[in-house]
Specification:
The protein is about 25% helix and about 25% strand. It is α+β, with helices and mostly antiparallel strands.
Length: about 350
């Protein structure tokens, strides 16, 4: 198939921050064969960097991309097989994640309802080990297929192969661009286990008058909560949560809790405590009289309803957002001796 290769095009439509960075070369692919064909073209242009783009919802473009940007548009959702307890469903990496969640809910396939309205594509889900409201992708992950561009072959990754961590996976540490995710297979349940204790889900269900839990009711509650807190990227450029919730030793959390009784933390199995990064950001600022929450410098800012979300109000560039993020990290470290790690990937 003849693939259209564009040169020097704006990536504004392809990233949710709305950054107007340019790509020297840009092309889309919808199969492993098309990707291999593009790799042949790439080899002709020399040793240029390659970025694989999905929904563009977890990236910050801080400069023009001097190499190739390849957009993954592999589609399709397929029921592979089922047993008395589980459904195994495979989705193309270019499918909308939220679209897949809704597809599964319509069929009463349980397990990802708490992950509703997370932006981006299916292929990004295992890279980030996406998670929300007490559920992570690894909880329902079965396997994925990826193209090893070096060996020019399709390989299967199991749960253990992916080395999932908190917003982390093998793919974040592998050779950049070597493995391109083609599809993801999930192991979903015919017998739902409802996760309603995390965040405000239970309260939202009660407010809606829900008496009998269902995966649709939980997804609807999650959608309402996320919509009330998070800005729509179509209106205000953003990439969702910009920072990870930091994990600190329990002894350090006890000291923090003594000094700031209102801080919230979630004990982990390894003895650490996960602290709400949004609280840390909201209760620090550029000076002791100003909170980061709602702060704005030019068109770069912190969302007024959720301090975890950095926003582009129109004409901010990636460098401005990155500078704001760095200032927030420094401020939180100076006040609380806690390092915030960014969740968003910089390019």
């Amino acid at each position: 198939m003849l693939m259209q290769i564009q040169e020097n095009i704006s990536l504004r439509p392809y990233n949710t921050f709305g950054m107007d960075a340019k790509a020297r070369y840009f092309a889309a692919f919808s199969s492993a064969d098309e990707l291999l064909g593009l790799n042949d073209r790439i080899s002709v242009t020399g040793n240029l960097p390659v970025m694989i783009l999905g929904g563009g919802s977890n990236i910050l473009l801080t400069k023009d991309q001097e190499g190739w940007v390849l957009k993954n548009e592999i589609r399709g959702v397929q029921l592979l097989h089922e047993d008395p307890d589980h459904i195994y469903v495979r989705a193309g990496a270019g499918e909308s994640w939220h679209g897949l969640v809704m597809y599964c809910i319509e069929r009463n396939w349980a397990g990802i309802e708490n992950l509703a309205l997370i932006p981006g594509c299916v292929g990004a889900a295992p890279m980030q080990n996406i998670g929300a409201y007490g559920v992570e992708l690894k909880d329902v992950f079965h396997s994925l297929e990826a193209l090893d561009t070096k060996k020019r072959s399709v390989v299967t990754f199991t749960l253990s192969d992916c080395a999932f961590g908190y917003r982390d996976s093998f793919f974040k540490h592998s050779e950049p661009g070597r493995y391109v995710i083609l599809s993801v297979t999930l192991k979903l349940s015919k017998h739902p286990v409802f996760h309603v204790s995390y965040g405000a889900i239970k309260e939202e269900l009660e407010k809606a008058g829900v008496k009998a839990y269902s995966i649709k009711a939980i997804a609807d509650a999650v959608i309402r909560i996320r919509s009330s807190k998070l800005p729509d990227p179509a209106v205000t450029g953003n990439a969702g949560s910009f920072f990870k919730n930091p994990s600190i030793p329990a002894t350090q959390f006890e000291v923090l809790k003594t000094a700031y009784p209102e801080v919230s933390g979630y004990p982990a199995a390894d003895g650490t405590v996960k602290v709400a990064a949004g609280w840390l950001i909201e209760h620090s600022g550029p000076d002791e009289n100003i909170s980061w929450k709602g702060y704005r410098v030019g068109d770069a800012g912190v969302h007024p309803r959720q301090a975890l979300v950095l926003v582009n109000y129109g004409k901010a560039n990636g460098e401005a957002i990155a500078a704001l993020a760095s200032a927030i990290q420094s401020s939180v470290f100076l006040k609380y001796n806690i390092k915030l790690e960014k969740e968003v990937n910089f390019y």
